[in-house]
Amino acid sequence: MHRILNKEVLAPDVVRFWIEGPHIARKRKPGQFVIIRTGEDGERIPLTIADVDRARGAISIIVQGVGKSTRQLNAMNEGDAILDLAGPLGRPTEIHPGRKVCCIGGGIGTAVVYPIACGVKALHGNVVAIIGGRTKDLVILEKELRAVVDEVVVTTDDGSYGEKGLVTDALKALLAGGHQFDEVVAVGPLPMMRAVVEVTRPLGIPTTVSLNPVMVDG
Known about the structure:
alpha/beta, seven-stranded antiparallel beta sheet, six-stranded parallel beta sheet, 6 helices
């Protein structure tokens, strides 16, 4: 059993949990995930490890309630216990020292690019983060990213916060302004990731996107 140490609502239907998992916290590398099962009848839920606190022996996950199992998980509270927590799983993201990387997160995808951005900075890289959402309430982890990376650009579809437009608009503006990136990492809805690749491919910028949306149970 793994106790929930902290619960924080980041956005509508989006919750950040800190959960006991010292063996996972010790070994986790950026890009890895865990599989959670809340109880005997629960489904297996794969979730990116957003952060670790090795001193507390804890890991952080960010959950968007979009189905029965994720809503059940988001209904749990501090002090509750999760039955199964398996990990760290998956191949860590390949990070090269000293590179300039643009990390792009759309909505909940920001929870996936955040640990990658931290990993790049840990290897003395330069990181520009572009994060977006349909509206201000759906932008997450801005404060955390500003504490780590070199520059953060926020966009919202409706212009309620940051720059009005899409993350690809911000990416085009950065490139037009003289930014040169060794790599782009983009995680978010499939149309967003496709649009990012359509910007970077003609310029020959290596681009990594996430297949998490098609992973059912790890």
